[in-house]
Amino acid sequence: MFSKSFVFLLIVLVFETKCDKEKVFDSSDCDLGSLVEEIASYDKRVKKIIDYTLSGPFKGKTYDELAKFVDKFGARPSGTLDLEQSIDYMIDLFHNEGLHEVITEEVEVPLWERGAEVLTMYEPRKKKMEILGLGKSVKTPLNGLTAEVVVISNFTQLEETPDEKIKGKIVLYVPIFTTYSETVVYRTQGAAKASAKGAVASLVRSIAPFSIDSPHTGSQTYSDGVEPIPAAAITLEDADLITRLYNRGETVKVQLIMYSTLETRVSRNTLVDLKGKESPEKLVIVSGHIDSWDVGQGAMDDGGGIFVSWAAPVILNRLNLIPRRTIRAILWTAEELGLIGVHAYKKAHEDESHNINFIMESDEGTFAPLGLVANGNHKTRCIVAEVLKLFQSINASTLIESDSPGSDISIFTGTGIPGASLHNDNGQYFWFHHTEGDTMNVETTENLDLGAAFWTAVAYIIADLSIDIPR
Amino acid sequence: MFSKSFVFLLIVLVFETKCDKEKVFDSSDCDLGSLVEEIASYDKRVKKIIDYTLSGPFKGKTYDELAKFVDKFGARPSGTLDLEQSIDYMIDLFHNEGLHEVITEEVEVPLWERGAEVLTMYEPRKKKMEILGLGKSVKTPLNGLTAEVVVISNFTQLEETPDEKIKGKIVLYVPIFTTYSETVVYRTQGAAKASAKGAVASLVRSIAPFSIDSPHTGSQTYSDGVEPIPAAAITLEDADLITRLYNRGETVKVQLIMYSTLETRVSRNTLVDLKGKESPEKLVIVSGHIDSWDVGQGAMDDGGGIFVSWAAPVILNRLNLIPRRTIRAILWTAEELGLIGVHAYKKAHEDESHNINFIMESDEGTFAPLGLVANGNHKTRCIVAEVLKLFQSINASTLIESDSPGSDISIFTGTGIPGASLHNDNGQYFWFHHTEGDTMNVETTENLDLGAAFWTAVAYIIADLSIDIPR
């Protein structure tokens, strides 16, 4: 019997480790027969989409619309009015493009609102430190918590430290970033484990390879039977400063003040169909999440993702390229606090899940597209690899294999439904991820044009092929 | 007749444009005769210094001492007790190494202390924006200033804008960073020029090529006969957000609250002599400034500079390599608010300025050393280029020519006294400069070992050569 918290923890774990075990697909033993010729025959339509987007009437449009959107609403946290108004705005944007098959589906979501957050080191000297509370963290007493810091490098060290050395202290985890999936466990599970050892609060070195004094927030989860304690991320710089002081034998004492509220609200998933002309019940889904963290503008995470997914039906509609199957653009809600929107969608659409031909998601940046990260059986991967050959002119022909690509869509791809996430040149993604630096300054017109063209053309071909993508 | 402000403005201009007109020196027509052989004969001593610092007892020492220093004191703004205590600490550090020829010289310096600084955009939507007031900025009224923003790209555009469009508004300068010297004028002169047109405050897009929502402070100066108005830097991200909103025809209204105090205090330049064994009156100066901005730790600007300059006499003393001339390490005070320490030194030591054989400064980062940026006549440059040939093993043999290298020392080098600043791999210098990101995270053990070895060996050779560096 699993508790609700444990299920949530599992969700978070699946969600946060999605990038593991990826390798470039080797298509040398693919044998697709006449399908090769069929796929090659899409070359003119691909070129038409690329030209329209990179040098035609759509040039710069994805960037401009994304900028107008994120400039107007800024951050769009789950449960806020800003998020709901931004959903209404997107609906209008689809309508304005003549796309009227738009529905929304309600979802109960958490509204975790950050209040004042202040971290001050008092010993060995006074220094105010930037922090960001982690998602759903409990607050401190109004006067804050003042306690000594214990620096912990990893969970093994925590386990091996006697409880009395942790009790009443604030644990600071200082894992050095390797990969996100490997390091993020100190953010997602740190507070629960520290509390189990008697800590009064949990701090974590931001899960990032680079910083300019820029803390990174993100989700975390408490465990059943363990007192929930305040949890926050601090900057790489301050974490390393405290570590150096601590390693020199100094007593490091800090005051932590955090305030927040947690309520429940109703949000909406947004579904937009460009109906297929032959098998409208069959779906190729393109998607991203419209909610964001409450810092920055959510331009990268995941404004870019929703705007390339907006562009796909819009460009196809403008070019009157209507595929055999339906293209459904979905703007998931409440991804950041635990894939809540997509779970509601999956439940509500259980009866049509056999109709999902292919499910796509862009949620790891919209830097220059390089190809796809896809799951599926061997034949599926052969087909996707063959489709990607049509994108050599824009250097987006790489197929990376993964068992459960994507973040939201991993709950489909993880069960064998074929799908893909956007593989893009996102080496700096975690520099900005979940920080105040997630703004339009991370985006470029060129990359969004490339991403929109690629996303649109891939979705079109897969939705139009003579055969379904095999499961 | 020049007013005091005007002189200060000139100082700032000289200081801020120091990087202009640099090119790699061409040594093909150098003819140094027997000096070539003499310089080459230092190869064993150079190797000894490099080995001692990179793999011997001094390995890691420069980084460790710098870390202990900046971790203990943090930022060290001009006029503060922290700065004075950090000076005392450095004196002890020299004494502990058996260097007792240490004196300090008092200097009147400004103490500009930043209070609360809050910038909130109210229209077209509410957003709190990070700011950093600029040096010596006046404060706003207690309730702040609420006004519309006028976005200005350059001074020509400002001049061409009718006064009535500026009057009562807040000017935001949004120059795109090209080079520091080219772009920084909007920070140093922006408020004065905006005030002359009737603006009530002046904001500037941070003078930086990159940001993670990280504002950059720095000096600025008012003009005589013009009302001083509050002046602050905002982040690239927010400047670009406001610019996009403004260019879409939106009215952008902000509230700016700034508080600060300006007083006068006494600080000290610190002079440490490793006396020359033949001509102790003749000086080779190595230097950096001990004050910093009030953000970050001042580890890069200019902690690294003072610690490689600390290392030079320390390493030579440890290795008993005593040159003919005196090596003087100087820790300048109050560089950031206008080269105040060095001006006082120049005045106090006017009678021995003919004895400055060569003056060196590290104040543009201590990333991997690449060589020197030097002034001087042709023969001087030939000598320096010949000396640099001894550093091919550590890739630090490049000589860049400049008419007035350095920041503090430019008031010497600008008048023809030969000198050099550290040329280093500082392409990311302005990512961190004058921000909260100027911390130990920018520094590495390897780079500081390389920098200390290079700085020490160069100073030694020049101080020991059989001939003076020609003027």
TrEMBL record, chains A, B:
Its main location: endoplasmic reticulum. The lineage of its organism: Eukaryota, Metazoa, Ecdysozoa, Arthropoda, Hexapoda. The keyword Lipid metabolism does not apply. Belongs to the peptidase M28 family. Residues 269-449 form the Peptidase M28 domain. GO terms for biological process: peptide catabolic process; proteolysis. Coiled coil: none annotated. GO terms for cellular component: endoplasmic reticulum; extracellular space; Golgi apparatus; lysosome. One of its GO terms (molecular function) is metallodipeptidase activity. Pfam families: Peptidase_M28. It is found in: Endoplasmic reticulum; Golgi apparatus; Lysosome; Secreted. Keywords: Carboxypeptidase, Endoplasmic reticulum, Glycoprotein, Golgi apparatus, Hydrolase, Lysosome, Metal-binding, Metalloprotease, Protease, Secreted, Signal, Zinc, Zymogen. This is Carboxypeptidase Q. Homodimer. The monomeric form is inactive while the homodimer is active. It comes from Mythimna separata. InterPro entries: CPQ, Peptidase_M28. The keyword Mitochondrion does not apply. Gene3D superfamilies: 3.50.30.30, Zn peptidases. Residues 1-21 form the signal peptide.
